[in-house]
Amino acid sequence: MTPSEDLAPRTRRLVDLLHMPVRGPDGRTLGRVNDVRLAPTRAVHGVSAELVVDGIVVDGNHPGSLLGYDRRSDQGPWLVRVAVRALHRHAGYLPWEAVTEVDWDARRVTVSTDRLQPLSGIG
Asked: How many CB atoms lie within 10 A of CB 25?
């Protein structure tokens, strides 16, 4: 391997980021990556806008989708909404700018804050 190949960025899959522990600046674990939020850019490839990572949803040890209940407070049937909210009541959001390091080998994410932003549809 040449030095330039060693410094070249590697492409990663979003699924590799899921379930990684998220640690605050003091090393305390805030939870695990439960979901990744994407945002469109102005770049278009074919008919689709290019997407970039906008932020991450951090939760405790509750894997599984939030089923959109984190985005709309009136999402779905009442009973399912109550169950999902109870299960993910400690979930929060971090903008990608708060991520200071993703250690792919150690499988952990370090962030610059110890406080999660609330999710709009859960609470």
From this structure: 12
Q: CB within 8 A of 104, min separation 6: which ones?
A: 12, 16
Instruction: Summarize the confidence of residues 67-81 as an average pLDDT.
Output: 68
Higher pLDDT, 60 or 54: 54
Listed range (5-14, 75-84, 98-107) with the worst mean pLDDT: 5-14
Nearest to 55 by CA among 93, 110, 85, 108: 93
Report the pLDDT value the prediction gives residue 91, as an integer from 0 to 100. Answer: 86
- H/E stretch holding 5 reads helix 3-7
Asked whether the predicted pLDDT for residue 44 surpasses 70, the reply is yes
The structural domains of the chain, ordered by start, are 3-111 (2.30.30.240)
Within 13 Å, how many C-alpha atoms sit on residue 33's CB side?
Answer: 24
How wide is the angle at C-alpha 65 spanned by C-alphas 23 and 27, nearest 5°?
Answer: 5
